[in-house]
TrEMBL record:
Keywords: Iron, Metal-binding, Oxidoreductase
Coiled coil region boundaries: none
Chain positions recorded as Fe cation binding sites: 177, 179, 315
Protein name (record): Iron hydroxylase
Keyword Manganese listed: no
Species per Swiss-Prot/TrEMBL record: Nocardia speluncae
Length: 392
């Protein structure tokens, strides 16, 4: 039932020049690390939250309060992606390999190690730094049904999960997908932070605003036809739940004829494509081919962040052979909501398969639109003021 992109597909060579690059100024980057260290050092955790400090209300209150004390350059650098690529790489977060300790064998071990005083000191500090950065960008949140509701997820290869479609896989191509495409409260922006990537494993990024689709194919994909199910990280009992068909594509209101306004909701591994008519399957297959054609594959380096517009770009990962020796690829992930990008009204009728968000931070203030002269559309050179885009 579940369609997965073929591993035999030859993805295009890395083309990271197509992705916007930003540099976090040195003083601002160090301020993030220093503040994270200070919060970790001065915080005391109640016994009930001893195993998960990032669930402690007092610690979260410190992060929320002091995120506003960071240099203005942090918020400016962590603004949403501003080009048709739907993604950007932020460089400059100070990070040393010695401070993070070995790559944990799974996310559960990563959570335990973050509170173990015998382990490297950097893990909890980096989790706090991730939340400070995410709070500067918008409103960080987690999922009650994923990684025990943790706000900062650890993405590491796990033995026994090599071939599944989840962040714990490795030897299989992780299909390009919208993060948590099944849910109406999915992130507007995804932040992936690289701690370790010794084999330069590529993260795939493809933007719907770079594809070429015929109008008939677009019209088919705009029609709610199939549901999208939760991925395996949420469990496996969701096919029996009420499934609501959702559109794969839609446009900003009033811009239906402008390919530069397309947004998408896409997860072929968890979409029951066999239930659709041949016309829909062909349109969907053409979309897959186009997303493959425009794919970029940045190989993140330690200290780099990848910001992904979750309504414009899909992401995945190329296959790699895990070592399971403490040196494997290790990313941290934070989901971010942006109040200036509300969801379409139709999505409020979806049940989200009962999955609830964990949102302990107050709503972030909406960002002001960036000056039009600062942002140019890569597709045709026209002004592309992403701050004005609202998904309603």
């Amino acid at each position: 039932m579940k369609s997965v992109l073929s591993e035999r597909k030859a993805l295009h060579p890395p083309n990271i020049d197509d992705i916007e690059h930003r540099e976090l100024p040195g003083t601002a980057a160090q301020a993030v690390r220093d503040l994270a260290a200070e919060i970790a050092r001065t915080s005391t955790h109640s016994a009930v939250n001893a195993s998960e400090p990032l669930a402690d209300p007092a610690l979260l209150a410190q992060i929320s309060t002091h995120a506003g004390d960071l240099p203005a350059a942090v918020r400016a650098t962590l603004r949403p992606p501003a080009t048709a690529a739907g993604a950007c790489i932020v460089r400059g977060l100070p990070l040393s390999d010695s401070e993070i300790g070995p790559t944990p064998p799974d996310w559960q071990t990563a959570a335990l190690w973050s509170t173990d005083p015998g382990r490297a000191r950097g893990s909890l500090e980096l989790d706090i730094a991730m939340l400070l950065l995410a709070a500067a960008a918008g409103e960080p949140f987690g999922w009650a049904g994923q990684q025990d509701g943790r706000l900062v997820n650890n993405i590491v290869p796990a033995a026994g999960h090599e071939f599944e479609q989840s962040g714990a896989s490795s030897t299989v191509l992780l299909s390009p997908h919208t993060e948590d495409a099944f849910h109406p409260q999915r992130a507007n922006m995804l932040m992936l932070a690289c701690l370790r990537n010794p084999e330069s494993v590529g993260t795939t990024v493809s933007s719907i605003r770079r594809v070429r689709l015929t109008r008939p194919h677009q019209d088919i994909l705009r029609t709610p036809t199939l549901p999208i199910l939760p991925d395996v990280s949420y469990g496996s009992a969701f096919e029996r739940a009420e499934a609501v068909p959702v559109p794969t594509l839609w446009s900003e209101p009033g811009h239906e004829d402008d390919p530069g306004s397309l947004t998408l909701r896409f997860d072929p591994a968890y979409t029951p494509l066999d239930d659709a008519c041949p016309e829909f399957r062909e349109a969907y297959a053409q979309l897959e081919r186009e997303l493959e054609r425009v794919c970029a594959m940045p190989a993140l380096r330690p200290g780099e962040l990848l910001l992904i517009d979750n309504d414009v770009a899909v992401h995945g990962r190329v296959p790699f052979t895990p070592r399971y020796d403490g040196t494997d690829r290790w990313l941290k992930r934070v989901n971010i909501r942006l109040p200036e990008h509300p969801r379409r009204a139709a999505e409020s009728r979806e049940n989200g398969y009962g999955q609830q968000i964990v949102a302990p931070f107050p709503p972030a203030p909406p960002r002001q639109a960036a000056p039009a002269r600062e942002v140019r559309n890569e597709r045709n050179g026209a002004v592309d003021d992403r701050g004005s885009i609202g998904h309603t």
